[in-house]
Structures are given as structure tokens and as C-alpha cells.
Design goal:
heterotrimer; A mainly alpha (about 325); B alpha/beta (about 375); C mainly alpha (about 260); A: about 325 residues; mainly alpha; globular; C: about 260 residues; 11 helices; transmembrane helix (chain C); MetI-like_sf (chain C); Spermidine/putrescine transport system permease protein (chain C); transport (chain C); transmembrane (chain C)
Chain lengths: ~325, ~375, ~260
């Protein structure tokens, strides 16, 4: 049992707010719905929650959601509709803005780059978050508190300030390059490059990967891994065939939210990137704020919006299926 | 015009007095007229109490200097001055079109007030301003100058030790002078740079045609993918202080600040690009008279001296005698020597070809 | 796990932790810079940027604007979000409630700039640019998803038989809610409130579009300051925010610990 500390069960508590704001929720999949709550967790709860839908005291509860829905309609629905309309109607009715968008090589390059950067950021997040989240489940409460703190600290400082800090870190005379030069490596160009943007964005988005991963991992029943080991599986095989598949829902959930957030990123690429690392959001902003071209800006926005929703639509069934499998386990 | 009877009576009285005045010595009349006429730099005590003005400019030491130059105006008039920026035409256009203009006085780059005169900027009533001390040829229909300055090449002193670049030809020669270039990508096309690029490509800028704009821009594009287009003066300063580009095109004020902060760069003065900023009042500004009062105070001799002392940008008052230290003096563009070295682009040509140039320039900025 | 696997794992974690924390910490030395510059390393030592933050009306007014907007948003979003969470929880039709939940959460996934230009377009027409109402409306809709998620999570584990019990003891619907439900789901509501506050306080993209000289929030002031000027005041603000949050969280942790022990 050496590799799985004995205090594993007691050590499951995490600050409430992390649990409460699980980003998986975005896709209508709550943590408890991921079906991966371990037997240990179930055992620690005195009674199973009662059936969710009750018939009395409720009446038709629809009206309770009305205020929020009205606000949503006014501040999200109507503005988005305006943008869609303008993309077809300015300067005149027709598809000209979309023809322009898909007919201009610059835009396609930027569109492709936006997806590319988002993919890199997602990959980097998975690679960094996986061992980190695992470590969070495997260490004692004090060390875990420290690890949780490190995830949350970035949230304590305004996002804009953090991006400025990245400028300080990444510039040629910055902290990273000073360290590299001191170690005798010479200068690496980081700022105003795609790599720089990826480094900065990954840091900003990492918590969105770590937290869902952690919440899934802490629910994995490690006895299954032990069982595999005792049946003669090598550690690597036990990991690949038992642990990894069980943790995949967390990876999917985190990856999809990171990817989607990355697609719409604006501040970080604007401040850390150069003209050759422009992302779609910056182009949208440029069209609207600098050129006041609502039609073209709107068309770009619609492309970004549609891409986001297509991704969501593709990812949702994948995730649903995943957690159903988990539940069947 | 509609006059009430009482006012009509009064105006008749005024007319009568006026007739009397004609017979009086001429000197008295001159004094009376002078009292109505604005004097640059002066404002009536407490005249703008309770009012708020928004002054929009490009930030950094420039806007700090402008605010410092306006401090006496703020104190005397009692106005509350807000600052905003950077100046962006689209933002102004959005305000004008939605009929909700929050900018009162706008500091703009070279072309904007000529291109947008009458549409985004009001035609100025020059009787409300004292323009008598402004250097000749700088007042437009919608604008007065805000200051004169230059765009220069700053080169990395350590990199080009014995063989430094001497002019724009060298700036465009990536073989003889390898290194990263940084160019002003803050918004408007830099006409002077396009002309210099065209010259470096073997053209004659004095006979430039619309088709030649492409040639100039192509030459800039040839500088390669490493070229940095900085978006703000702050960024250019950061580039120099962090040593991230070897040849940086900079505004003189920012160059001076970077040098003051220890950047190891040397200016190239041959053919420095002569540029100026303007002050203009947006169409639909909330209180144009207050805007005029601000501009008039700004044009005063003392304000202009303060502006130069703080920024190194050249005053637009012909009697201003700013007291500057050595570093600032080195970046002044108003000395006889500098005036001789400057390069002036063809303003009417660029105003005429503004729209297509903007489109091409934007494409260049987008990295392609 | 082999010993070298553990070492590698530990090292990776340390690197990630440093990566997460470094940008926050690097701001602190920059805030004492003597030069008006963001070049590293900072030169000398001075308090002038803190002084500037406290005395310059642009900084202080934007700070108070943010405080005002975020407080209003926290209250409005918490009320609307909690109501909606209850409504969805009580809804009989699971498909409808699932669909509505998804709708209410969309502001989280709509790309910021797209939403921002939409809101900007509508606000230009309705003259809401640079108004308190405009800010509160826009930020509330961005904060509601967080409240909804937090409150829904508490409702999910809340044993509804307790409410039934209260009702069977003769409590009215409101009394049951006030005396039984509310205290039990309060942690969820409070964390929703906190997140709503932070969401608004830190929001930049929409704010960039809808602020004007008369109403500017702190993130916008920070952003314009960064883009217009290499001004270490930004670092001072970052440090102040960092310390303030640290104290609040440390206080909360201490309090929580004492309660648990007591």
C-alpha cells in the first residue's frame, strides 16, 4: 500500500467553493452525475439523498427562473441577435461579410491559428494538470492544502495584472531569460511569439483543468488499481488499463472547457502576442473598435460563436457516454 | 432672430452707444475689442466651475505633460478634467453616431482632423481662440496643433558599435544591418515611413502615385516576419528598455524617456519624420465653449513651456522658451539643426488617398 | 510507485506550482520600482506607486466604481441565481429544466468579445454605455451561472424530506424555506455571492467596451494604464489586491478551523 497513502479516505475534503463550481456543470454534467463517486465517498455519507423530483411544495416552479431568463434575453439574447443581424445586413443585406471572411487569406490564417493555439494550450494543460491533480489526491492534507492554494492564488490577482506579469516574465530582459542567460543558455524569444501566448494562456487556464480532474480522480476507487496489481499487472499497465480510463471523464471535461475558453481568449494574446500571433477575438475587436465595421466584426463573431457551439454539441454526448460507462462500471 | 421688446430696446441703446463710440478716440475701441478677444493661455477665474471636461490623448509622458500644462487652467477655471484614451477614431465615430459624445477635446494624429473635418470634428470658430502665436501653416479648418514632434530610428548602441545605421535606407537594409525592427503600429498609417520605404525601394517620393503606396508597403513587408509593430508608445518604450528590438522607430518623447530609464540606444536624426498632433473638438461635444476655453489655455506660452519641459516635444507657441535639461534637449526637434534634418511627408497626397492606405496598412499590421 | 517515479512526479508538480504562482509574485518587487518602467529587474526602492494609487483620482475612482458595481452585482446575481436554481430544482419536467439550465449557463461559454460587441451595440442605442445600470446588468448575467452552479450543488445534496417534515409540522412554504432550507444551503449561496462579486470585480472584456470617462472600472483602468504607459502603479494595485485577498482567505481559513475544532 506504499504508493497509496493510508489517509486517502479522510483526505478527501476540499474547500467547498471548488466543489461547488465544478466547470463540468457547464455541460449539464454535475460532479455527482459523473457517476464516479467512489464507494468510499458513498460510505461516508450517512444517507442517500432522497429522490430528486418531489411533487408537493413545488407547484410550477417555472416562474422562479423568469427574472434570470428575462435578463438573459435582454443582455445576451438580444445583443447576440443584433450581431447576427448586422453580420448579414451591414452595409447591405446579403452574405458579403461572410464571403469576405472566408475569401480573405489573412482571416483564414488567423482562424486556423486560433484553433491551433487553443489545441496547444489544451494539450499543455492536460500534461501539466494530470500529474498535479494526481498528486493532490495522493498527498497528506497539509501538502494538499498547499497544492490547492497554488491553484487558487492566480485567481487572487486581477487577470489583467497577471497578463502584465507575464510580460515582465517573458520579455527578453525578463525573469525567464535572465535565468536562462545566467545558466548559459542564451536568450530565447518568448514575448510576441505564439509560444509566449501559449505559456501565458496555459497558466491562466490551468486551474480549469486541474479542478475537474481532481474532482474525478479523488473519486476513483484505488482498490481497483490494487486489484490489478495483485493480479500481476505491472504498475504501468495497471495505470494505463485501470486508472487512466477511470480518470478520462475529468480529462474530457477539463479539456473541453479549456479549449472553449481558449478559443475566445482576448486579453492575453493581445498583450503577449505580436501581429503573427493574433487570435480571432483580437480581429473581432479590431473590426468593431478600430474600424467600426459592425458587419465584418459581426461575421467574425458569428464564426467564433458557431465554432464554440459546434464543439460543445460534439463534446456533450461524448462526455455523457463516458460518465454512463463510468456508472456502469 | 427673435427679440423680446425689452431686449430690442436695449439693443437700440447699444446701437446708440456704438454710434457715440465711433466719435471717440480709436484707442478706446481697440481696448474694448481686445477684452472680448481670447488671449492664449488665459481663462476667467471660476468660469467653468461645476463643469466636467474629458481630454483624450495618447497617454504616457505625453498626456501627463499635457495635463501638467493644463493644471493652471484646471485650477483657475474650476473645471473637473477627466482624461481618456488612446484616441481612436472608431470610438469617436460610435459616440457621434449614437449621439452620446463624452469626449470634449481630442488630441489626434496627423490626418484624422483633415479626413474627418465636419463629420467627426467641428469646424473651428477661430474667433474663440488666440491662434496668433502658432507657427504658420499649422492651423486647419477643424484643428489647431497640439505639439510638433518627430519619429526617429533608435538603434541598439551595443549591437551596431562601429558601423551604426545612418538613415532610413539602412533601416530597410536587412543584409547590411541584421536585427529586429520595430515599427509604429499604433493605428494610422505612417505616411512618412511609407514614403521612406518607397525611396529605399528606389522610388522618388515627390512623384508618388496611388500605385506606389503598394510598393512602399511591400518594402516594409520585406523586413520579414520578425518585425514588431508596437501598438502603443508604452510598448515602444518597453521594447527599448528591455532591448528587444535592434532598430526601433519611436516617437521622440518616448525615445527620450527610454534613454532616461537607461535604454542603451542612439537616435538617428537624418530624415527624422516630421509629425504633429492636433487638437480638435468632436461634433456633438457637450459644451463646445468649455472645449474652446481648454484649447485656448493649452495654446498659452506658459502651458507650452511646461509641455516641452515635461515631454521634449516642441512647443507650438513661437515665443515659448522652455528650460530643459540635457537629456530632454537632446531630443528637442525645434533646434535649427533638427529643422534642417527633418523629412516632411506630403500631407495633401495622403489625405487624398487615406481610405485605401488605411486598408493596406491594416493588412500589414495583421501580419500578412 | 517506484521511487524515481515519485521524484519525477514531485518535480513536475513543483514546476507547475511555480508556474501557477510566479506571475502573481513577480508583481510585488515591480511595485517598488523607482523608475517609471516595467523592465526587470526593478531599480531602487520607492513607495511612489502606492502613493499614486491612493492619491490619483483616476485610480481611486475606478477602484470605488469596481467596488460599487461588484457589490450590486453580487446581490442582484445571488438573488436571481438562487431563485432560478430553486425553480430548476423544483421543475417536474427534467428536459425543460435541463434546457433552461443550459441556457442560463451560456454566458460562461459565449466568447467574451462576441458578447461584448453585442452588448456594446445595444448599449450605444439605449445610451447605457458608461452607466452604472449598464455595468450591473451586463455583469449580473455573467455572474448568474456561478451562483446557479453553487446553489444547485447545495440543493442537490440537500435532503428535501426535511422540508416535508417542516411542512408536516405546520410550517408554511416560506417559513419552511426560511428556517430549514435557507440555513442548510447558505454555504452554497455565500460561495455564489463571492464568485459573483469576483466575476464582476475582475471582468474586463465587456467593461472595455462599455466604459467611458465618466464610469471606468478598475480592470479597465489597469488595462489602459498598461497599454498607454509602462506604469508600475499597476504592480502596486496587483500587490494590494493580492495581499487583501490573502488576508481575507487566511482569516476565513482560521475561522473555519476554529469552528471545526470548537
Amino acid at each position: 500500500m506504499r504508493h497509496f497513502p493510508g489517509n486517502w479516505i479522510q483526505a478527501r475534503e476540499i474547500p467547498l467553493h471548488i466543489r461547488d463550481t465544478h466547470p463540468c456543470e457547464v455541460f449539464g454534467v454535475s460532479i455527482s452525475q459523473t457517476g464516479l463517486a467512489s464507494t468510499a465517498e458513498a460510505a461516508s455519507e450517512p444517507a442517500k439523498p432522497p429522490p430528486r423530483r418531489r411533487l408537493h411544495l413545488a407547484g410550477n416552479a417555472l416562474w422562479l427562473t423568469v427574472p434570470a431568463l428575462l435578463l438573459l434575453l435582454g443582455v445576451v439574447g438580444y445583443p447576440l441577435l443584433t450581431i447576427v443581424l448586422r453580420s448579414f445586413s451591414e452595409p447591405m443585406w446579403g452574405l458579403q461579410n461572410y464571403v469576405w471572411f472566408f475569401g480573405t487569406p489573412v482571416n483564414l490564417v488567423v482562424l486556423q491559428r486560433t484553433f491551433e493555439v487553443s489545441a496547444w494550450v489544451t494539450l499543455a494543460c492536460v500534461i501539466c494538470a494530470y500529474p498535479y491533480a494526481y498528486m493532490m489526491t495522493a498527498v497528506g492534507p497539509l501538502l494538499r492544502m498547499l497544492l490547492v492554494l497554488c491553484v487558487l492564488v492566480p485567481f487572487w490577482v486581477s487577470g489583467v495584472v497577471r497578463t502584465m506579469a507575464w510580460v515582465i516574465l517573458l520579455q527578453d530582459s525578463g525573469v525567464i531569460n535572465s535565468a536562462l542567460r545566467w545558466a548559459g543558455f542564451g536568450t530565447v524569444r518568448l514575448i510576441r511569439t505564439q509560444q509566449g501566448v501559449v505559456i501565458g494562456m496555459t497558466q491562466v487556464l490551468l486551474p480549469f483543468m486541474i479542478l475537474p480532474l481532481y474532482s474525478v480522480m479523488r473519486g476513483i476507487d484505488l482498490r481497483l488499481v490494487q486489484a490489478a496489481r495483485s493480479l500481476g499487472a505491472r504498475p504501468s499497465r495497471a495505470f494505463l488499463q485501470v486508472y487512466l480510463p477511470l480518470s478520462l471523464p475529468g480529462v474530457y471535461a477539463g479539456a473541453i472547457i479549456v479549449f472553449i475558453l481558449a478559443l475566445g481568449f482576448y486579453i492575453t494574446p493581445a498583450l503577449l502576442g505580436g501581429p503573427r500571433s493574433t487570435m480571432l477575438s483580437t480581429l473581432v475587436q479590431n473590426q468593431v473598435l478600430s474600424l467600426l465595421n459592425w458587419g465584418r466584426g459581426g461575421a467574425m463573431g458569428v464564426v467564433l460563436l458557431v465554432a464554440t457551439f459546434i464543439l460543445l454539441a460534439l463534446a456533450a454526448p461524448l462526455m455523457r457516454q463516458r460518465h454512463r460507462q463510468g456508472a456502469r462500471r | 432672430m427673435l427679440y423680446s421688446r425689452k431686449e430690442f430696446g436695449r439693443s437700440r441703446l447699444v446701437a446708440l452707444l456704438g454710434m457715440l463710440a465711433v466719435s471717440m478716440p480709436l484707442a478706446t475701441a481697440t481696448i474694448a475689442a481686445a477684452q472680448d478677444k481670447p488671449v492664449a493661455g488665459e481663462v476667467k477665474e471660476g468660469s467653468l466651475k461645476g463643469k466636467t471636461l474629458t481630454f483624450v490623448s495618447f497617454g504616457g509622458i505625453y498626456q501627463d505633460g499635457q495635463i501638467a500644462a493644463l493644471q493652471e487652467f484646471i485650477d483657475r477655471s474650476g473645471v473637473r478634467l477627466l482624461s481618456d484614451g488612446p484616441t481612436e477614431m472608431a470610438k469617436l465615430q460610435a459616440q457621434v453616431e449614437s449621439g452620446n459624445v463624452t469626449w470634449d477635446v481630442v488630441d489626434t494624429a496627423d490626418f484624422a482632423p483633415y479626413v474627418h473635418c465636419g463629420k467627426l470634428f467641428q469646424k473651428l470658430d477661430l474667433s474663440k481662440l488666440d491662434t496668433s502665436h502658432i507657427p504658420p501653416g499649422q492651423v486647419g479648418e477643424c484643428n489647431v496643433p497640439a505639439m510638433n514632434y518627430g519619429m526617429i530610428i533608435m538603434y541598439n548602441t551595443e549591437k551596431y558599435k562601429d558601423n551604426p545605421p545612418k538613415d532610413w535606407k539602412d533601416f530597410f537594409d536587412t543584409e547590411k544591418f541584421p536585427g529586429v525592427r520595430a515599427i509604429d503600429g499604433s493605428g494610422d498609417p505612417i505616411a512618412g515611413l511609407i514614403e521612406q520605404a518607397f525611396i529605399a525601394a528606389g522610388g522618388d517620393a515627390s512623384k508618388m502615385t496611388a500605385a506606389d503606396i503598394d510598393k512602399g508597403i511591400a518594402k516594409i513587408r520585406e523586413l520579414g516576419p520578425d518585425t514588431i509593430f508596437w501598438k502603443t508608445g508604452a510598448e515602444s518604450q518597453q521594447l527599448a528598455e528591455a532591448g528587444e528590438a535592434d532598430l526601433i522607430m519611436m516617437w521622440t518623447g518616448r525615445a527620450m524617456t527610454a534613454a532616461r530609464n537607461g535604454a542603451k540606444y542612439t537616435p538617428v536624426w537624418k530624415d527624422w519624420l516630421v509629425v504633429m498632433d492636433h487638437l480638435a473638438i468632436p461634433v456633438g461635444a457637450r459644451d463646445p465653449d468649455a472645449s474652446y476655453a481648454l484649447i485656448n489655455a493649452y495654446l498659452g506660452r506658459k502651458s507650452q513651456e511646461i509641455l516641452t519641459e515635461k515631454t521634449s516635444y516642441s512647443p507650438i507657441h513661437n515665443e515659448a522658451q522652455p528650460k530643459v535639461d540635457e537629456t530632454t534637449a537632446a531630443y528637442l526637434t525645434s533646434t535649427p539643426e533638427r529643422i534642417r534634418q527633418g523629412y516632411q511627408h506630403n500631407i495633401p497626397f495622403w489625405v487624398q488617398h487615406y481610405a485605401p492606405t488605411v486598408e493596406k496598412w491594416t493588412e500589414l499590421m495583421a501580419g500578412n | 510507485m517506484q521511487i524515481h517515479t515519485r521524484i519525477v512526479l514531485g518535480l513536475v508538480c513543483m514546476l507547475v506550482a511555480v508556474w501557477l504562482v510566479a506571475p502573481t509574485l513577480v508583481v510585488i518587487p515591480m511595485s517598488f520600482n523607482e523608475n517609471k518602467s516595467l523592465a526587470f529587474p526593478p531599480v531602487g526602492f520607492s513607495w511612489q506607486w502606492y502613493e499614486n494609487f491612493l492619491t490619483n483620482p483616476e485610480w481611486s475612482s475606478s477602484f470605488f466604481n469596481s467596488l460599487k458595481v461588484a457589490s450590486l452585482v453580487a446581490v442582484v446575481a445571488t438573488v436571481l441565481g438562487t431563485l432560478a436554481a430553486f425553480g430548476l430544482d423544483r421543475m417536474r419536467n427534467v428536459t425543460t429544466s435541463g434546457f433552461l439550465r443550459m441556457l442560463l449557463i451560456t454566458p460562461m461559454v459565449v466568447p467574451g468579445v462576441v458578447l461584448a460587441i453585442g452588448i456594446y451595440a445595444v448599449y450605444l442605442d439605449t445610451r447605457l454605455v458608461g452607466t452604472l445600470t449598464g455595468f450591473v446588468l451586463a455583469h449580473t448575467i455573467l455572474a448568474i451561472p456561478f451562483v446557479l452552479i453553487a446553489v444547485s450543488a447545495s440543493l442537490e445534496v440537500f435532503d428535501k424530506r426535511l422540508e416535508t417534515a417542516a411542512a408536516s409540522c405546520g410550517a408554511g412554504r416560506l417559513t419552511a424555506f426560511r428556517t430549514v432550507t435557507l440555513p442548510l444551503i447558505l454555504p452554497g449561496i455565500l460561495s455564489g455571492l463571492l464568485f459573483a462579486f469576483v466575476t464582476s470585480f475582475d471582468e474586463i472584456i465587456v467593461a472595455l467596451f462599455i466604459s467611458n470617462p465618466y464610469l471606468k472600472t478598475l480592470p479597465v483602468q489597469i488595462f489602459t494604464s498598461i497599454t498607454r504607459d509602462a506604469d508600475p502603479t499597476v504592480a502596486a494595485v496587483g500587490t494590494i489586491l493580492f495581499l487583501a485577498t490573502s488576508f481575507i482567505i487566511a482569516g476565513g481559513l482560521l475561522l473555519g478551523n476554529r469552528q471545526r475544532k470548537g
